[in-house]
Amino acid sequence: VAPSPPFITPHFSRKAVTDNPEPLPHATKKRTHTMPPTPTTPAATGAGAAAAVTPEHAWPRRMVRFNPRSDRFHTLSFHHVEFWCADAASAAGRFAFALGAPLAARSDLSTGNSVHASQLLRSGNLAFLFTAPYANGCDAATASLPSFSADAARRFSADHGLAVRSIALRVADAAEAFRASVDGGARPAFSPVDLGRGFGFAEVELYGDVVLRFVSHPDGTDVPFLPGFEGVSNPGAVDYGLTRFDHVVGNVPELASAAAYVAGFTGFHEFAEFTTEDVGTAESGLNSMVLANNSEGVLLPLNEPVHGTKRRSQIQTFLEHHGGPGVQHIAVASSDVLRTLREMRARSAMGGFDFLPPPLPKYYEGVRRIAGDVLSEAQIKECQELGVLVDRDDQGVLLQIFTKPVGDR
């Protein structure tokens, strides 16, 4: 949510000499994680800023490839991302329609929860949770999310609108992850609890009003999400092809202190670092650092604004509209981005997500030069029709596109 709430975006792409004489606000940088050289690699939704990328470029100046395997606790994967909102059914319904991620589980009045309404959407390993408070005076013991506070949720929505409250990681042991994090300097948000059925749960502060949530559970559990949630069957749901979270990006006022804090308590290593010369344009600037766990399957980029550019930094704009640090965009992977885009664009005018304007036609002349031996002419033409951005490095071809902001801010 790059000038506002979270976007859904794919991988980083890279700025270079632009074929567009009117440079757009910002180009995110390309990750160097493993990607097979196929036209159906990750990319799906996104935004955070306009994407002025070109298909010809040099390596960024500060790509970090050394992996010290320094995690302070065993992190397995992203587990879910939770939005706090005023009405869970409405917010979840729009995301489900826009992303092809049907309702998979719920905890609300119908399940005996009188504290909060929560709806979980799934597509592959992608899990979005939407949570809203009920009226005051309810039985706190009925809540399925033990850390939930109705008063805090109302303040959060007033301050930030529709926004990410929790980035949840699946870890080997939630209590151990919490202990190791606090020993490493993390500010505790919610002490470990046993949810039953082998599920552990804990939270520490991440940045702003966002928490990093630790969830642990046995392999092969038949619990649809967390204990207290009931599964929902959607046999006729349409799958758009989204498969997992790739990265979740936070905007902060000052990068060095935020990165030191997060790296200090997680042990995550520096996956990549970019400055405004690498990432920004004459219009807007940012500095960015990507932190990764040992397996590099969990990526947590952090951005800070750079001041003194031709136009004010889009990161600073986010911080002001959002009301402080928060999740700027969410990158999701697709098994076939072209099919995903056809499905999503077909629903844009009916309440789905809108996308940023496509590059000028000249951009795709460059695509033919850098990827014409991998992408067929028909695929390149479809990329142009759908507005897909194309990038390539020694590890493969990346196809991606960015949504416009998915909320009012």
Describe the structure.
With 409 residues, the protein is an alpha+beta fold. Among the domains are: 157 residues, 2,3-Dihydroxybiphenyl 1,2-Dioxygenase, domain 1, CATH 3.10.180; 55 residues, no CATH class. The protein contains nine helices and 17 strands. The strands form three sheets. A nine-stranded mixed sheet has the order 7-8-9-6-2-5-4-3-10. A hairpin with a 2-residue loop joins strand 4 and strand 5. The chain starts with 6 loop residues before the first strand and ends in a 9-residue tail after the last strand.
Provide a concise account of the structure shown.
Keywords: Cytoplasm, Dioxygenase, Iron, Metal-binding, Oxidoreductase, Phenylalanine catabolism, Repeat, Tyrosine catabolism. This protein has 409 residues and is an alpha+beta fold.
- Classify the beta-strand content into a percent band: 25-35%
Name the shape in a single word.
Answer: globular
Q: How many β-strand stretches?
A: 17
Name the CATH architecture of one domain: Roll
- The pLDDT mean sits at 85
The helix/strand series, from N terminus to C terminus, equals EEHEEEHEHEEEEEHEHEEHEHHHEE
Low-confidence stretches: 1-5, 9-62
Descriptors:
6-stranded mixed sheet, 21% helix, alpha+beta, 409 residues, 9-stranded mixed sheet, 17 strands, 2,3-Dihydroxybiphenyl 1,2-Dioxygenase, domain 1
Describe how the helices and strands are arranged:
Elements: E1 7-9, E2 75-84, H1 88-99, E3 103-107, E4 116-123, E5 126-133, H2 150-160, E6 163-171, H3 174-183, E7 188-196, E8 199-207, E9 210-216, E10 230-231, E11 242-251, H4 255-266, E12 269-274, H5 276-279, E13 286-292, E14 299-305, H6 314-322, E15 326-334, H7 337-345, H8 362-371, H9 377-386, E16 389-393, E17 396-400
Parallel strand pairs: 1-15, 2-5, 6-9, 11-14
Antiparallel strand pairs: 2-6, 3-4, 3-10, 4-5, 7-8, 8-9, 11-15, 12-13, 13-14, 16-17
Region (Disordered): 1-54
EC number: 1.13.11.27
Keywords: Cytoplasm, Dioxygenase, Iron, Metal-binding, Oxidoreductase, Phenylalanine catabolism, Repeat, Tyrosine catabolism
